[in-house]
């Protein structure tokens, strides 16, 4: 479809096997929100508008998206949880982890943000964890901090589909 205000075209494509009609609709919503999709680069959601549209569209968690209200902690079990989430996306179809998003029953509820963090330090920590805690390494992970109006940040982690799977958590001999 052509948007008469911007002269841009929006294409919705749903390809795949789905469990039911709702699963197909959830996948279609995810694709529609990512706007202009370049399948060769697997774009990162990189604006507040992109994240707010997840709430507006009530895009549920699924194969391509997961919401976390809090950051992954610094304990070994929390690090392993982060690495499991990242490697799971890479081993399947890729996807986004949205940190700082509250959810209810798998649906985005509110963009709470991450309180009292240094976004640059958290990005570096997540990058370092994913580089050293997963084998084989997953190339192309993109991480971005999105400033929110309440003074906090949301962190978006884009994990691409890997052509070198399976990946496994190797953190501390896991």
3D structure, described in words:
With 174 residues, the protein is of the alpha+beta class. Helix content is 30%, strand content 22%. The chain has four helices and ten strands, in the order ββααβαβββαββββ. It has helices at 21-33, 48-56, 76-91, 119-132; strands spanning 2-3, 8-9, 65-68, 95-99, 101-104, 107-111, 134-135, 142-147, 153-159, 168-169. The strands form four sheets. The chain has a four-stranded mixed β-sheet. A two-stranded antiparallel ribbon has the order 1-2.
The unreliable regions are 9-15, 30-41
- As a percent range, the share of strand residues is 15-25%
As laid out across the biggest beta sheet, the strand order is 3-4-9-8
**N-to-C order of helices and strands:** EEHHEHEEEHEEEE
């Amino acid at each position: 479809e052509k948007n008469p205000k911007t002269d841009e075209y929006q294409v919705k494509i749903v390809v795949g096997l789905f469990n039911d009609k709702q699963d197909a609709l959830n996948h279609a919503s995810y694709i529609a929100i990512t706007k202009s999709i370049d399948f060769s680069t697997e774009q990162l959601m990189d604006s507040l508008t992109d994240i707010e549209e997840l709430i507006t569209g009530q895009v549920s968690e699924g194969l391509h998206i997961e919401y976390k209200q809090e950051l992954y902690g610094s304990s070994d079990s929390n690090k392993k949880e982060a690495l499991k989430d990242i490697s799971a996306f890479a081993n399947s179809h890729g996807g986004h982890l949205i940190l700082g998003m509250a959810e209810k029953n798998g649906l985005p509820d509110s963009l709470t943000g991450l309180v009292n963090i240094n976004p640059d330090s958290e990005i570096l920590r997540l990058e370092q964890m994913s580089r050293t805690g997963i084998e084989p390494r997953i190339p192309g992970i993109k991480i971005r901090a999105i400033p929110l109006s309440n003074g906090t940040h949301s962190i978006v982690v884009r994990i691409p589909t890997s052509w070198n799977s399976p990946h496994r958590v190797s953190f501390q001999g896991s």
